From TrEMBL:
Residues 49-58 have a biased composition (Polar residues). This is M15 family metallopeptidase. Residues 49-90 are annotated as: Disordered. PANTHER family: D-ALANYL-D-ALANINE CARBOXYPEPTIDASE (PTHR34385), PEPTIDOGLYCAN L-ALANYL-D-GLUTAMATE ENDOPEPTIDASE CWLK (PTHR34385:SF1). The lineage of its organism: Bacteria, Bacillati, Bacillota, Clostridia, Eubacteriales. It comes from the Bacteria. Residues 69-90 have a biased composition (Low complexity). Gene3D superfamilies: 3.30.1380.10. Residues 132-268 form the D-alanyl-D-alanine carboxypeptidase-like core domain. InterPro entries: DD-CPase-like, VanY-like_core_dom, VanY/YodJ_core_dom, Zn_M74/Hedgehog-like.
Length: 291
C-alpha cells in the first residue's frame, strides 16, 4: 500500500485535494447560514427591481411612452443615468420639504423637471365647497377672491382643487386611453395627453396650492374661457390675493403646459405682485427655465 501510495503520490494527492474541496463547497452550499444569506441577496435584488419598475411606471402614469425612452437614451448617452435618478429624487424631497416648511412653501416649483414626491399630501386641507379642498394655508385668500368676484356680479366656481397622486394618475391614463381611442398610437397619445394633463407627480394640484376656476356661463376648459368676464376679472385681480395665472398664453415652451386661462396658483401676495409686474412665468421668476 505504502509503495502504491508513493508510486502514485502525484496523482492521488491532487485528486484527494480536489475531492476534499468539492465536499467542502458542498457543505458550505448546504449550510443553513449560506442558504439564508443567498436567499437574502436574491430577495434584495428582486425588491430593487420591483421598486424600479413601479417608480418608472408611476412616473409614466402606468403607460410606456416615447418620452421615457428618450430620457433613458439621453441618460445613457451622457453616461450618468445613476446621477439623473438620484437628482430627481432629491428634487422630489426638496419640493415636499419646501411645501411642508413654514417659510417659502408658496414658492415650490412643480413641473416636469421638478416633480413632487408621490407620497406628499398637504398637512391640512380645507374644504372650500361640497367637493373641493385646498391647502388650508391658501383657503382664506382663495375664498376672499371668490367672494370679491361674486360681489362684482361675476359667477364662477372652482372645478378642481387639491388632487391626490392617484387621482392624477387616473386622469392621465384616461387621457391617454381617450386619445388612443381616437386613433393615436400609444406614444402619440402619451405626448398629446402630457401637453394637457400634468404627468402624475408633476401636477401643481397635488400641492393643494392650485385651483382651476371656470365661469358658470362657460365651463369649457379651452381658450374661450379667457374671453369670459370672470376670467378677465381673475386675470386682472388674482395677484391682489396672492395668485398668478400659472400657464399664460405663449409660454408653453417654458412651462411645458399649454395655455390654461383657468389654472391659478397661489404664490403669496408679494411674489404674485412681482411676477405680474415683471410679466414672467414662475419658472422664469425662479430662474428655472425648462430649456
Ligand atoms: Zn389646473
Amino acid at each position: 500500500m505504502k509503495l502504491f501510495y508513493r508510486k502514485h503520490y502525484r496523482i492521488i494527492k491532487p485528486a484527494a485535494t480536489g475531492v476534499l474541496s468539492l465536499i467542502l463547497v458542498g457543505l458550505i452550499l448546504l449550510s443553513p447560514e449560506f442558504q439564508r444569506l443567498f436567499a437574502k441577496t436574491a430577495d434584495a435584488a428582486q425588491t430593487e427591481e420591483t421598486v424600479a419598475q413601479t417608480s418608472s411606471e408611476a412616473s409614466a402614469g402606468g403607460v410606456s411612452d416615447a418620452d421615457q425612452t428618450a430620457d433613458s437614451a439621453e441618460d445613457a448617452a451622457s453616461g450618468d443615468s445613476g446621477t439623473a435618478g438620484s437628482e430627481t429624487e432629491t428634487v422630489q424631497q426638496d419640493n415636499a420639504q419646501m411645501l411642508a416648511g413654514e417659510d417659502s412653501w408658496m414658492l415650490a416649483l412643480i413641473n416636469r423637471d421638478h416633480p413632487l414626491d408621490a407620497s406628499y399630501t398637504p398637512a391640512s386641507l380645507t374644504q372650500i365647497d361640497d367637493s373641493h379642498s385646498v391647502d388650508s394655508r391658501i383657503a382664506d385668500a382663495l375664498l376672499k377672491m371668490l367672494n370679491d368676484a361674486s360681489a362684482q356680479g361675476l359667477d364662477m366656481y372652482v372645478i378642481s382643487g387639491y388632487r391626490s397622486y392617484d387621482y392624477q394618475t387616473q386622469l392621465f391614463n384616461d387621457g391617454v386611453s381617450q386619445r388612443m381611442g381616437q386613433g393615436l398610437t400609444e406614444a402619440e397619445a402619451y405626448s398629446e395627453t402630457a401637453r394637457n394633463v400634468a404627468v402624475p407627480g408633476t401636477s401643481e394640484h397635488a400641492s393643494g396650492l392650485a385651483v382651476d376656476i371656470v365661469s358658470a356661463g362657460y365651463t369649457q376648459l379651452d381658450e374661450g374661457q379667457a374671453r369670459t368676464a370672470e376670467q378677465q376679472w381673475l386675470m386682472e385681480h388674482c395677484w391682489e390675493y396672492g395668485f398668478i395665472l400659472r400657464y399664460p398664453e405663449g409660454t408653453e415652451e417654458i412651462t411645458g403646459i399649454v395655455y390654461e386661462p383657468w389654472h391659478y396658483r397661489y404664490v403669496g401676495a408679494e411674489t404674485a405682485k412681482e411676477i405680474t409686474e415683471q410679466n414672467v412665468t414662475l419658472e422664469e421668476y425662479l430662474g428655472q427655465n425648462r430649456s
